[in-house]
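thoughts on my protein:
***
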Amino acid sequence: MKTLSRKECEAELVSRLRQARVDSVGRWGRMSAHQMICHVCDSFRMALGEKHVKDVSTLAKRTLVKQLALYMPLQWRPGIVTVPEVDQEAGGTRPIEFAQDLKEVETLLVRMVSRAGKGDWPPHPIFGRMSEADWMRWAYLHTDHHLRQFGL
């Protein structure tokens, strides 16, 4: 199972992120490649407890949907709606300088990995309480989803 807690998965995502270009064309969705990089940055900040997001979870999302999303051997489908705090057209970080934002997403990914073993992970806005293993699996799947969105 792919997870950010595996060094080879971390290296894979870093390599794919480094292939992103400001003019990369999306296969689905409204985001530009630059917005996607900022979205992934904001999402890592959320996972690190540095970006506050409103809880929109429900019992079904915290249980069944979380288990299906994180542990079924299926790729996430296009069109999943995010929370406003990490939506670049709402409350998310606005793209400014692509090269700097690309460097920042790699830094945040590495920080996410280095947080392992330190406990006290924040709740996910949709999935509620998550273990370290859940967060590392989510981090891989979320980043992979958006890289696939741009053919990376």
The two ends are 20 Å apart (CA to CA). The domain at 7-149 is CATH 1.20.120 (Four Helix Bundle (Hemerythrin (Met), subunit A)). Residues 27 and 79 are 11 Å apart (CA to CA).
